[in-house]
């Protein structure tokens, strides 16, 4: 277990920004440690996970801890690499916010303006076209994915389908897809929409999406170990996990991208939490703006889910689930609290349980 307090001074090293941290102790922190240990230990036992890691940021103080042992008997630490899965979408949302800030894109303009010479007449319904707002809030009407179906997922064929899928095939499928709902009217979670957002961002900046993540986020947040694994190199360092039947599962990140392909460490995710909570870069604040939904209940920002947006309890959050990993990320801008939890298991209930643990932790901090 490690506690830190953030200094006001920022140290610039090789163009990257790192927070200088010093140790801090107190009874409330000991209570929090015991509480977190009990909650995570219970989760590991119930979900039969091997390991879990957690990072908490609260008003400049940082708590990091790790639980369990990997198959080789090694305990996880701040440098243990995990799949982030769909938490990746919050990074995509932040790059999108930067593009809006840079006036590279119009949030409410027709996305077909960014799709080259093809007319894509199919990407409208009853005269209503798809916008980047719709893509960022999963209301575009695009499917969960073009690469695979729910039947493929049930048969365990996701990797087989993704590994054979290309950018060219994506746009071929996009050109033939028929919208069944009016853009902006219905929520339908869409990896395809997230990928399309990234392709548009690559086009308007004329740079690979990986480079945009590096330039617009990592170079500012100080994350050293957040990256895509599409080259299939260094995969031995990424933690694998198990499914609900206890079966060892392969990594999904090498076959995923802007919708769920990032891997990271507890240390880097701590930097990401700090950046989301303390950065004065305008795109960060913009990425938190409510784009759709109910400001007093559930809504959506730039690929963030939101809850009680117009209150001091304002929460932005996202979960992640790969074939063998579950993760949870939540920030409370008004409370200056952030929570990241990850475990190497993927079951029907694992993401929801991490959500519950995070909520309890925030309540516990409020009592301290």
Determine the oligomeric state from the structure: single chain
Number of strands: 18
What share of residues is helical? 25-40%
Placed side by side, the strands forming the largest sheet appear as: 2-1-4-3-17-16-15-14-13-12
**End-to-end C-alpha gap:** 18 Å
What do we call the CATH homologous superfamily? DD-peptidase/beta-lactamase superfamily
List segments where confidence is low: pLDDT < 50 over at least 5 consecutive residues.
Answer: 1-25
Main sheet properties: 10 strands, antiparallel
Protein name: D-alanyl-D-alanine-carboxypeptidase/ endopeptidase AmpH
Pfam families: Beta-lactamase (PF00144)
Family: Belongs to the beta-lactamase family.
InterPro entries: Beta-lactam-related, Beta-lactam/transpept-like, Beta-lactamase-like_AB/R
């Amino acid at each position: 277990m490690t506690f830190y307090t953030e200094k006001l001074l920022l140290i610039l090293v090789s163009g990257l920004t790192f927070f200088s941290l010093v140790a801090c102790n107190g009874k409330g922190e000991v209570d929090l440690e015991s509480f977190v240990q009990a909650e995570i230990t219970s989760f590991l036992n119930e979900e039969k996970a091997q390991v879990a890691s957690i990072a908490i940021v609260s008003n400049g103080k940082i708590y990091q801890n790790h639980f369990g042992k990997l198959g080789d008997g090694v305990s996880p630490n701040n440098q243990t690499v995990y799949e982030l899965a769909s938490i990746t979408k919050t990074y995509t949302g932040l790059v999108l916010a930067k593009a809006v800030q840079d006036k590279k894109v119009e949030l409410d303009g027709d996305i077909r303006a960014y799709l080259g010479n093809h007319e894509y007449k199919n990407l409208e319904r009853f005269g209503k076209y798809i916008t980047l707002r719709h893509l960022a809030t999963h209301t575009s009407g695009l499917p969960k994915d073009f690469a695979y179906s729910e039947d493929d997922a049930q048969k365990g064929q996701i990797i087989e389908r993704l590994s054979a899928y290309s950018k060219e095939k994506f746009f071929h499928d996009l050109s033939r897809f028929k919208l069944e709902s009016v853009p902006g009217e219905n929520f339908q979670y869409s990896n395809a929409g997230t990928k399309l957002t990234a392709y548009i961002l690559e086009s308007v900046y004329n740079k690979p999406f990986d480079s945009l993540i590096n330039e617009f986020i990592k170079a500012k947040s100080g994350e050293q170990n957040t990256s895509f694994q599409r080259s299939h190199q260094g995969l031995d360092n990424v933690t694998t996990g198990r499914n609900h039947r206890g079966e060892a599962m392969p990594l999904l990140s090498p076959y995923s991208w802007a919708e769920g392909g990032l891997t990271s460490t507890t240390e880097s995710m701590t930097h990401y939490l700090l950046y989301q909570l303390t950065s004065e870069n305008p795109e960060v604040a913009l990425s938190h703006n409510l784009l759709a939904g109910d400001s007093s209940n559930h809504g959506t920002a730039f690929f963030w889910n939101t809850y009680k947006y117009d209150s001091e309890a304002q929460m932005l959050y996202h979960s992640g689930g790969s074939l063998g990993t579950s993760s949870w990320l939540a920030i409370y801008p008004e409370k200056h609290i952030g929570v990241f939890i990850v475990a190497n298991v993927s079951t029907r209930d694992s993401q929801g349980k991490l959500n519950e643990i995070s909520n309890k932790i925030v309540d516990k901090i409020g009592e301290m």
